[in-house]
Design brief:
Elements (H helix, E strand, L loop, with lengths): L17 E5 L2 E5 L15 E7 L7 E7 L18 E4 L5 E5 L8 E5 L7 E5 L21 E4 L5 E6 L8 H7 L5 E7 L11 E5 L14 E10 L2 E8 L4 E7 L7 E8 L22 E4 L2 E9 L7 E8 L22 E2 L2 E4 L5 E3 L21 E3 L12 E5 L4 E10 L3 E8 L2 E9 L8 E8 L2 E10 L4 E13 L2 E8 L1
Parallel strand pairs: 20-25
Antiparallel strand pairs: 1-2, 2-3, 3-4, 5-6, 6-7, 7-8, 9-10, 10-11, 11-12, 13-14, 14-15, 15-16, 17-18, 18-19, 21-31, 22-25, 23-24, 24-31, 25-30, 26-29, 26-31, 27-28, 27-30
Length: 484
């Protein structure tokens, strides 16, 4: 089965993904947004998994933990933020999480990687006091956990926004927001063995260091690769995941580079965002012989309707990674077939004449309704997705990367809208993405209902990306296309 991005069904909104390989399956643990939800992370934790040798075949494992299972949230009103799951030295599986409005780290446990987790306790000092409750404690957020080869357990947590952002709230709490921290835990998986040590600086402390410009913001995650420790995090730029490397799990990290940007900023020197900008969060996984970076994108003109994506990475002998490009075929281990039907939602770049949508922490900047976006009909649900691209106006472009084309004869597209114009289909190579080859054109007419259009294509063979560009009046919605 082919794998596409986003790799989960179109109705599923699981951001902040931590990929873990347990046995012969890949499990993804994340927070759980709702379509048209009022805020981040409003749903209970669910889990999805796939065979390690078939990354297009994801299975729903169900709800693994509910908000009201935590004693500090009996009414279920608090929001479960980004989690992590590790297998402990006892063979059991431990879920670490934090609520949006609390600054303590909770732990739940289960005998299987995707069963029903049960509350275990809170990260605490040896005297039983909860870590995060005292003035001067770290503002715990987005926990990541490493069980090292020697059985030692390390918790990574922290939050460090740009100066002035949430400054008043954080100041009232009196907690540290200057970087990411590591805490060693006892074998019980939740009692602190020592005090926290900084592993990555926030924006103030990063000045003059190799982290400057890519200082730590949130999304703590740790991996061990070939004896080195890789700290993965979201920088203060928010749209990118970065990594830092050290010989030790508790310090000595130096900045490594960018793993992925959800606007493809930095890829091949690109400075112009090619996709909606907002936050992202994820981590690394080695699946088979390949490395992947898991991350999320924004949809529905919302900051908090985020979907899971992944891209293959190149790891060099010196331990560095190249930045991944956003694609439509991230987990496919190669381009998609040049024959078949594809949903428009797998577009990896979505732009218009005005640029891209930009989300910040509080609002969406599209007062004039100019930008195209991914959306679906109806309300939040757990089946029967119908996601599509909405509001493609003059100059809007949806790009799909990549396909193994072998002289497809024609393309069919399904559209609707109050439009009067032309759809242009272009092909472009990976190396020359700004140069397109026109393959065909379709005249588009206004239609309230979905309508099928078809055009012959010029002959082309090889691995190419495809651009669907609308030029004309009004706006079109784009459901799917077929190559034949």
């Amino acid at each position: 089965m082919q794998a596409v991005n986003p790799y989960l069904p179109s109705y599923e909104y699981v951001p902040d993904g931590e990929p873990r390989v347990f046995g012969d399956r890949v499990y993804v643990y994340g927070s759980h947004d709702a379509f048209n939800g009022s805020d981040f992370c409003v749903n209970d934790y669910v889990c999805w998994s796939a065979p390690a040798d078939d990354l297009g075949n994801w299975s729903y494992e169900g709800v693994i933990y509910r908000k009201n299972q935590d004693p500090k949230n009996p009414g279920g009103k608090r929001r479960l933020c980004a989690p992590d799951v590790v297998q402990g030295i006892d063979g059991r599986y431990y879920l670490y999480y934090e609520f949006a409005d609390l600054i303590v780290t909770s732990v739940a446990v289960c005998d299987t990687p995707a069963g029903k987790f049960e509350f275990l306790g809170y990260v605490q000092r040896p005297d039983g006091s909860l870590y995060g409750m005292k003035k001067g404690d770290v503002n715990n957020f987005d926990p990541g956990v490493l069980v090292d080869d020697d059985g030692k357990v390390y918790l990574y947590t922290g939050f460090s926004p740009l100066p002035g952002f949430l400054k008043t709230i954080m100041g009232m709490r009196g907690r540290r927001i200057d970087g990411a921290y590591c805490i060693e835990l006892e074998a019980d998986m939740h009692t602190m063995k020592g005090e926290p040590l900084m592993v990555a600086p926030g924006p103030e402390l990063a000045k003059g260091t190799d982290f400057d410009g890519h200082a730590f913001y949130e999304a703590n995650s740790m991996r061990k690769i070939n004896g080195k420790y890789y700290f993965i995090y979201s920088s203060v730029l928010s749209h990118e995941l970065n990594y830092a490397i050290s010989d030790h799990p508790t310090g000595g990290f130096h900045y490594g580079g960018t793993l992925v940007s959800i606007g493809d900023i930095g890829y091949q020197g690109n400075r112009i965002p090619k996709n909606t900008l907002g936050n992202t969060h994820g981590s690394l996984a080695k699946i088979g012989s390949a490395w992947y970076i898991f991350y999320h994108r924004q949809t529905n003109k919302q900051k908090c309707a985020r979907q899971a994506c992944a891209e293959q990475l190149t790891l060099h002998e010196d331990g560095t990674f190249d930045q991944a490009e956003m694609t439509s075929c991230g987990l496919n281990n190669g381009p998609l077939s040049g024959v078949g039907t594809y949903e428009a939602r797998i577009a990896c770049n979505l732009t218009c004449a005005q640029g891209v949508l930009v989300y910040d922490a509080t609002r969406i900047k599209d007062k004039k309704n100019q930008y195209p976006y991914f959306t679906q009909s109806g309300s939040d649900r757990e089946s029967d997705g119908d996601q599509y691209i909405a509001n493609m106006k003059d100059g809007a472009c949806a790009a799909f990367k990549y396909f193994a084309l072998e002289c497809p004869k024609n393309m069919k597209v399904i559209l609707r809208g109050d439009a009067g114009g032309v759809i242009k289909i272009e092909a472009f190579s990976k190396k020359k993405q700004n140069t397109g080859q026109l393959l065909g054109e379709i005249k588009v007419l206004a239609s309230k209902n979905w309508k099928l259009y078809e055009t012959p294509l010029k002959k082309i063979t090889g691995v190419y990306g495809l651009r669907i560009i609308y030029e004309g009046n009004g706006a079109v919605d784009f459901q799917s296309f077929e190559l034949k």
